[in-house]
Write a structure and sequence with these properties.
The chain is of the alpha+beta class and 210 residues long. The protein has a single domain, classed as Aminopeptidase (3-Layer(aba) Sandwich), CATH 3.40.630. The protein has six helices and seven strands, in the order βαααβββαβαββα.
């Protein structure tokens, strides 16, 4: 059964703090699968600080509280010899798995990579990262194992009108979804403040009674 449409928003430097929070919420094993080593909070901070939002593409999925629950990094090659290559990495919080977020982020990255002229998408993953390798295989990628590590290679077709329109529509709809969530959160925050003030007034009134 296909998963419903999921809003995927392009991330920018203004989202660095949310990205740090998201990655720091990953447990030790998930950090190991995502980065290939036992990443500490300090490692994560340096990774996020080094993100190049002008060169690469970073995407995220937000819940209704505007918490980043899943994100992907599409890193383009900086070597001119491999200018048509890119690498994909993804992370999903444990409580949000089973909803197809990783697969949706991968599909989104494939469309964007095609539109940027990428012809070969790489996925470097630990061999025990069965979820990531399953996503790659489902997309038709060739997977080569070398002990504890695996490399997946996916050849991408050239961009066409459909891939370009799909990217534009998805980004516009995701931005609208984010703005709706932001306004709803703002309303909830205001309501919480009003309720706190009201409670304070009640307590003060009761204390003033003889």
């Amino acid at each position: 059964m296909p998963y419903p449409w999921i809003p995927i928003l392009p991330l920018s430097p203004r989202h660095r703090l949310k990205i740090v929070r998201h990655l720091c919420e990953l447990n030790a094993h998930d950090r190991y699968l995502r980065f290939g080593y036992a990443a500490t909070d300090e490692h994560i901070g340096r990774y996020v600080e080094g993100l190049n939002f002008l060169r690469d593409e970073v995407y995220g999925v937000f819940n209704r509280r505007l918490e980043l629950v899943a994100m992907a990094h599409l890193a383009f090659s900086i070597d001119p010899q491999w200018s048509t290559c890119a690498e994909f990495g993804v992370s999903v919080l444990s409580q949000c798995r089973g909803k197809g977020l990783g697969a949706k982020l991968f599909d989104h990255a494939v469309v964007h990579a095609r539109n940027e002229g990428v012809r070969m998408l790489f996925i470097h993953a630990l061999s025990e990262n069965s979820a990531m390798l399953r996503i790659a295989k489902s997309a038709g990628a060739r997977v080569e194992r070398d002990g504890s590590e695996s490399e997946a290679y996916l050849e991408l077709p050239a961009a066409n009108l459909d891939s370009q329109v799909t990217q534009i529509l998805n980004e516009q709809m995701s931005e609208m979804d984010y703005q709706v969530k932001a306004k709803a959160k703002q309303f909830r925050d205001i309501l919480a403040v009003l309720q706190e003030i009201r409670q304070g007034v009640r307590e003060a009134r009761h204390q003033s009674k003889p």
